[in-house]
Protein 1
Amino acid sequence: MSGYIPFVVVFLALALVYMPFGNYMARVFTTEKHSWLERGIYRFTGINPDQEVGWRSYAQSVITFSIVCILGLYAIIRLQTFLPLHYSVDPMRPDQAWNTAISFVTNTNWQSYSGETALTIFVQMFGLTVQNFVSAGVGLCVAIALIRSLANVKGNGKLGNFWVDLTRGILRILLPIAALATIFLISQGVIQNLHAALEYASITSGTTQTLPSGAVASQEAIKELGTNGGGFFNANSAHPWENPNAYTNMLEIFLILLIPVCLTRTFGVMVHQKRQGWAVLSAMATLYTLVLVVVSYAETHVASVSGSGLEGKELRFGILPSSLFAVTTTGTSTGAVDAAHSSFSPLGGGMLALNMMLGEIAPGGVGTGIYAMLVMFILAVFIAGLMVGRTPEYLGKRIQVPEITLVSLFILVMPVLVILGVGISTVIPGIRTWLSTAGPHGFTELVYAFTSATNNNGSAFAGIHADEPWFTVSLGLVMFLGRFLPIIFALALAGRFATNPSIPETSGTLPTHRPLFIGVVVGICLIVGALTFLPTLVLGPIAEAML
């Protein structure tokens, strides 16, 4: 029964902070007051914090800022041997630097390298850790813009100010929590220093062992809080210097879920209908619980039948906490792992892939989860309205042809990129030599890689040679498109809603907060995700399970 303790602790902690933290985030993005530090930043950068813009200007700011971040991070990585704290680390290949820069700016944190040997401490701190804050902040901004559009009753087309939203999200939400988490991680043994790698002579064999060092705790905290996932070490959160014990493991799971879960409360408060926030949370929780139950059952069943359930898992965590961590990360666009997903049972590993194929909406990443789930709610309203003969509208906003077109484009981006990437890769000569094995398991590695990259998750199934130029270039491309195409469509949808004045509810308005409608939303999420990828799952984890 001790394996269930992390479940109780994490979910109880989330329940305790849900309303106060959700309310706090709503105040952060609705108050007209600016702190002295924020005012100083606005004066220094020439930003007018009181200027609100439409969706095109908002989207232009998001894309321009992100491209500048990609170019800047690429330059830092390529020039790392000339920057401080390099400690004789070799330069990174151009294609791998391209992949890494896009990966961290898009909140994916896919790593085709071993962090402790491929990157300097300077790059880890001022390149990757900074982007962990910034990329999470961008996702948060897009979510808030969409929520504002639904709360906009005037129809003036304004979504707010991206630069103000980004500054507040980082300074008032991400930075304080990450600082507290860093202190706790250090207290539990996570290292935090600027030393070069230390070499020791082994007492038993006399050989020299190298122990890498660096600012790990500060990166680990925001890596989880921002649903980023990129680890300082190659072993990620399975490394004892990133995740030493059961307490840090529970904290990291809590940090991953904190903002995505509480944003549903923020949504309810900002649209002045708290029951709508509960409805979104219920849909997320239903999908999350479904996957968690199946994965936990699959792993404990394997352990009881064959005794191999601990393969690929850390003994200090155990089977059930590792399952909880894996389901949490694959459902929140977090690439962190404390166990090897390739060592999960075929059913368990397949459900982890399916968790990402659903669009990472249960509960999704920082910002990305809530705006992706709101898109599914809008689709459900449209379908349900057609079924019962009612005019589709959500929170007083009519859903017409332009809106449903944007919803369709939003939904199609991910499966198209995944299927194209996998299809092209399978016909490349020698692709099998880049996988750990042939057959269904190797195919699952390939599918998992493109699913993880397109959904900006970043976790790997293990076994795949991710540093091959084909993968570094192609996965970098799908990470970029998988991040910014949905953002553009979401902001365009927000622009449509913000332009249209809200209409009052009538007796013909479809209730979108009741259990029946929530069930419809869950069913549509499963249909869109599961049926789209069913042939792919049949060729991979299902075939492996049958064998």
Protein 2
Amino acid sequence: MSLPATILPPLARALTAKGYETLTPVQSAIIEDETAGRDLLVSAQTGSGKTVAFGMAIAPTLLGEDDSFGAAGAPLALVIAPTRELALQVQRELDWLYAEAGARTASAVGGMDARTERRALERGAHIIVGTPGRLRDHITRGALDMSGLRAVVLDEADEMLDLGFREDLEFILDAAPEDRRTLLFSATVPRPIAQLAKTFQRDALRISATSGEEQHADIDYKLMLVPAAERENAIINTLLFFDSANTIVFASTREGVKHLSARLHNRGFDVVTLSGELTQSERTNALQSMRDGRARICVATDVAARGIDLPNLDLVIHADLPTNADTLLHRSGRTGRAGRKGTCVIIAPMHRRNVAQRILKTAKLDVSMMAPPSAAQIEAQYRESILTAEALSRPVAEDESEFVAQLLARHSAEAIAAAYLRQQLASRPAPEDVTENAMPDKPGDKDPRTRERFEGGTWFKVTVGRKHKAEPRWVLPMLCKAGNVTKTAIGSIRIFDTESHFEVAADKADSFARSVEKNGSGERGVQILAIDAPGERPTSPRAAGPRPSNKRPPGPPARYDPAAPRSERSDRKQRYGSTALGADDFEAPPAEEVRAPRPDKPRGPKPTTKDKGKPKWAGKAAEGEPRPKKAKPAKKDHKPKRKPQV
């Protein structure tokens, strides 16, 4: 199929040389006759070929009737991208697209040497690609001449607004000539994007390249539920099972990237990392290693979720669940780009199954379940690839025939084949052991929680109880995680003093026991054990042992004497417990010790204290004489606590 005639000849030749036979929906829509010379507001899914699309769209505006550019001077086009990697990638795409037209491009991105960029701008360029902050800096310093601009392209505009570049974008667009063309590309068109388009575009034509149902047709989504302790093992086995030429593994944090890349490197994988803490040169080298084949796996944070386009990237693994549906779509969009097929594997711990389902439902994706590849599957795949290796089907060359004859003369064919097999297996990473058949058939299925399901169930005990402040609300998640089951597999939970008993459904008891035996409880000092003897199976909380009582032990109670020495009272506390005793726990004093109430006595003079000296008034005043008053101490002079400040 030939390319449309509306594409300028130099660009058509470049596309043909690149192997383009058909155009993507966004590329076809943007070169229609009605789009010529107009401002465009385009919504297209990531990986749909937007860079080539707006390159073809602005070509008539930049070249006019000519087939090639003249001498480079002030830039004719400005492309703004949200990240360094995306800006440099756009520059590479435009380089080959405009190679036949003789265009000169230059970049202006953060993290690179600004002096080198200024010298490139002084020499002149037809197209400038940059990030908002660095472009604004060059405009402010007078290094970037905006007077000759004919077109401005905003790529991933929604991402730029999310990253807080609105003020920089408004500054750049205000500095551009008013008669320019403005092309705005965004995955979605929320209200901030619509307001930006209304302010800086003139009668923009709205283009929606793909529908929500078609945007992920080239990506096969798979959900893999695994025990939390086996997440890294599942990642390793997934990499070995698919054996993709290039793979991106997404982690949520920089520390997660470091840990996972170290684990994969130790297992023999060729790994590079990509995160925000790396310098621009380190990030560029990492991507270049993926492009030239020195590395096959890139472990990255969400800094690589937008715009990164790697050749032969057939597999994307979500090692950590994304925070929302948009992040999931942008991560997954690194594969299945421009008509290529790709696979996306979402690895979710069992206890976060509902979170994964909610994100997938919001993203409106058709997802199939996938069990973690087992070691046996991968080893069988290894042997099949060895048997069908291309090297075995090649004829023996003349310069090899003599040495082959020597090998056969010295060793048997079986010995040579065995040596070859051992060499091939040793060169491949060994698979990990994972729990098999640990997930339901469909992502939305839930086991019914009925009493009949627990008939014939098995009772277990966990070594935490009331003394450890155990409660079902935190015991249940621990049991589910340790046994690799959902909460519907756990029946009654009965909490006692030092341990708790719980019931596991009959069809899950064996797998629960195996998982606990392999992984433990997951908590330090806590054990989960099966209650083997039938007599140990509790029918009620009291059947597992007597409950503590606040009543005192049998025997004659000791009378509580407040005047008793503290040591005796402490001894009583040790004997009868620290719980306060009620009134019924004390015996009444003997009858002979009960005293009659004392009659009221007339008030008399206060007794004289001999130890402290004679008081000022120790007797009763004579009749008619005034009662002497107690002398008050003289007032002391008050001194200020600190000197007043002058």
